[in-house]
Design brief:
The chain is α/β, with parallel strands linked by helices. The protein contains six helices and 14 strands. It has a single domain, classed as 4-Layer Sandwich (Metallo-beta-lactamase, Chain A). The strands form two sheets. A seven-stranded mixed β-sheet has the order 6-5-4-3-2-1-14, covered by helices on one side. A seven-stranded mixed β-sheet has the order 7-8-9-10-11-12-13. Bound molecules: nickel (II) ion (NI) and manganese (II) ion.
Length: about 230
């Protein structure tokens, strides 16, 4: 199986599993200052929603409604998505896993918050461990560093997608510490440089990753892809 990861800016990715497109945290041009792609031009068969903040969910209903994509999210967010008029939402909760056509998805914990844009309760924030044909991809979501990342790393990670921008999530130092727990083969950074409070020197961070971890950093340009 060929898996291609495309970064649209901030925490929005398309994971393409042999043509099945899984969009993580839809936040596209017009809403996302880092993005070039508009939601009307995005494609998805599935949407993975880590939590309910606007910089992750602003374009979820628009993308899901036009494409018919199934949203995968926690129970509270699914109720909210359904109330917005999109009924194709698969509810999960922390620690649970389920098999989808592109792979098994397990909802992992995240240390963050999760209010929805209209003030509704968004349940607990999360991340996702996606396992398919022996390949394990960890999408951390917005999170602080937590020591149970070592348990997630026990799966044997081929790729980890981590927030590194500081202020709202882990910063560069804690993301480096996370790599010591997760031990992924490759790390792709996200959630940085979208706005001034999360501006970092990502190439300097990538140099530190090369020097102080066993992971290979892949720093993507906007709409650039990494194929594994
Ligand atoms: Ni957030
Ligand atoms: Mn965020």
């Amino acid at each position: 199986m060929s898996i291609t990861i495309t970064w649209h800016g901030h925490a929005t990715f398309t994971l393409d599993f042999d043509g099945t497109r899984v969009v993580v945290d839809p936040f596209f041009a017009g809403n996302n200052p880092a993005a070039k792609l508009a939601v009307k031009d995005a494609a998805a068969e599935f949407i993975l929603q880590t939590h309910g903040h606007g910089d992750h969910i602003a374009d979820t209903v628009a993308l899901a409604s036009r494409t018919g994509a199934q949203v995968i999210a926690n129970f509270e967010i699914c109720n909210w998505i359904t109330a917005q008029g999109h009924e194709n939402c698969w509810a999960m909760n922390t620690g649970g896993g389920y098999g989808f056509p592109f792979g098994r998805v397990k909802m992992t914990p995240a240390l963050h918050s999760s209010g929805l844009p209209d003030g509704s309760y968004g349940g607990d924030p999360g991340g996702f461990l996606i396992s398919t044909n022996g390949t394990n991809i960890y999408v951390a979501g917005d999170t602080a560093l937590f020591s149970d990342m070592a348990l997630i790393g026990q799966a044997g990670l081929d790729l980890a997608i981590l927030p590194v921008g500081d202020n709202f999530t882990m910063g560069p130092d804690d993301a480096l510490a996370a790599l010591a727990l997760l031990k992924p083969e490759v790390v792709i950074p996200c959630h940085y440089n979208t706005w001034p409070p999360i501006a970092i020197d990502v190439q300097a961070w990538a140099d530190r990753v090369r020097q102080h971890s066993s992971a290979r950093p892949v720093v993507l340009d906007i709409d650039a892809s990494y194929t594994m």
